[in-house]
Amino acid sequence: MKKLLIATRNKGKFPEIVSELKELPFEFLNLNDISDLPKDFEVEETAMTFEGNAIIKAIMLGKKAGIMTLADDSGLEVDALDGRPGVFSARYAPGSDSDRYYKLFAELKEVPGDERGAQFQCVMAIYNPENDKVRTCNSIYRGKISTEPRGENGFGYDPIFYNEALGKTNAEMNLGEKNRVSHRGKALRLAKEIIKKDFL
Question: Where does Mg(2+) bind (predicted)?
Fold first, then answer.
């Protein structure tokens, strides 16, 4: 069976991705499954766009592992902060996920509820080292920044990203609900079609 490397070590992200792609004829691996990759190996995300970073990760890891690789770069863009944290979402503050979202809360302290619009953006890149083929797709998921964290599921900024239609944060959703509406879920459905068309 062909292998597909999902370029993450994130314990929350890997099952989210596999649940969308599971009908494809692949054995799914994550970075922890690649034995000759040092445990602390990180791809430097040097691009200033999500697409640039996703392509860098997919190509570098695909070449290192020698197998087809899917990488994503995603981030939170807050309207009142001119799109910050954007590509710096994962490193917006040192420490944990909650350190990062409490920094956001502090920056949005004076911003009223109806001006707390935000979006997640996700770009997926698929790379096949056998023929050097790379394809990308992207999607956007609109919502609002809550005034306090809510929910125990998910990871990253999920506890503070509020979906008005569902009346809950990402972290209050189960995996099925989140994948139906989220930026990553939408991008994965596009990626699945690209893989079927261009990589199988």
Answer: 44, 73
Answer yes or no: is 9 a known binding residue: yes
What is the number of domains present in the chain? 1
What token pair was written down for 148?
């306090």
The predicted-structure confidence for 106-122, as pLDDT tens digits, reads as follows: 999 999 999 999 999 99
Which among 73, 79, 82, 114 is annotated as catalytic?
A: 73
Domain CATH for 46: 3.90.950.10
**Which structural domain range is residue 116 located in?**
2-198
- Chain segment 27-47, per-residue pLDDT in tens: 999 999 998 887 778 888 889
Residue spans of the chain under pLDDT 70:
none
CA distance 172 to 153: 6
151 annotated ligand-binding residue: no
Q: The pTM is what?
A: 0.90
Annotated active-site residue 73? The verdict is: yes
